[in-house]
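Give me the fold.
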Amino acid sequence: MFAQTGVQLQFSREFQDFVPRLFQILIRALGKAGAAPVEIEVLLRHGTLSDPAFHLPDFLLPTVSPVLKNLKKLYLAAAVGPRQSTFIHGNGVSSMKHHGSLLGRFLNHTPNLTHLRLNLQHHQFENNTAFLIWLSITKSEDGGPAPIDLPHLKSLEFGQFEVEPSNILGVVEKFAPTLRELSLWRLELSDRRGVQRHDIKPNRWAGLFANLVKLPQLRLNFLKIGWLKQDHQKVNFKAAGREDAPLEGIREYSGPKMNAYLQDLIDETIVQWPAEIEVLSDDEDDENGMDVDDDGEVEDGNEDDED
């Protein structure tokens, strides 16, 4: 690509500037050509589309609106960093950070979208959390951003990032009336806001599945999950009915009995916690006939004394 574009497209500042601009050019070119694709997919192995890629200035809307309104499927690798935005309260001027503000506005110009895939930046926990909270709201708070309305969304795919379980649940609950397919791929669930205790080992994924069952309007008929993590630990699944079988990293189900399947997942989801190291007391050391000398070397207490 360097020979054709003059831009080094891996791990460089040029990449961060060039790719968003290229995405904007492509959207505008589609509008100028009168094209009406039903699907746009952005695959980036070594980066994401930063928020400026989704900037839609007012003068450009007449050109690109027909393109966006015709979209049915949108697959994106995106970064949802904050942008400073100012709004007016009755008592004066305040400011607020809108995470992924341009992406959210972009999505509000895709009212006929039925399939959405979002791969976000894995380690941007705060950014991802803030954006998903916005994606989950159904009405504007005082001075806050307008809700992201996707009234025909049937398929939702999240991948590659770290976030709180409640934020995934909030988005699924919002779109539950129309949502029929859910894919969670290489996601990590964490709770960085709570107090971490080493003696408590929650199963956040099992908890998420249990809460999905409780959503009264959710009628999923397809679920795919795989290569999950929790608190930096791998999450796998027991093979149904086979205690001695190897753990599995991927699960997929299609059918009318989703709640029963989720109930089984609750029991089959395993967090691969690291093995605990047993610390022996001094008395236990003595009983084992082992002692440690001043240099840190192990001495066998049963060894015969030297003559």
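The chain has one domain: 2-86+94-300.
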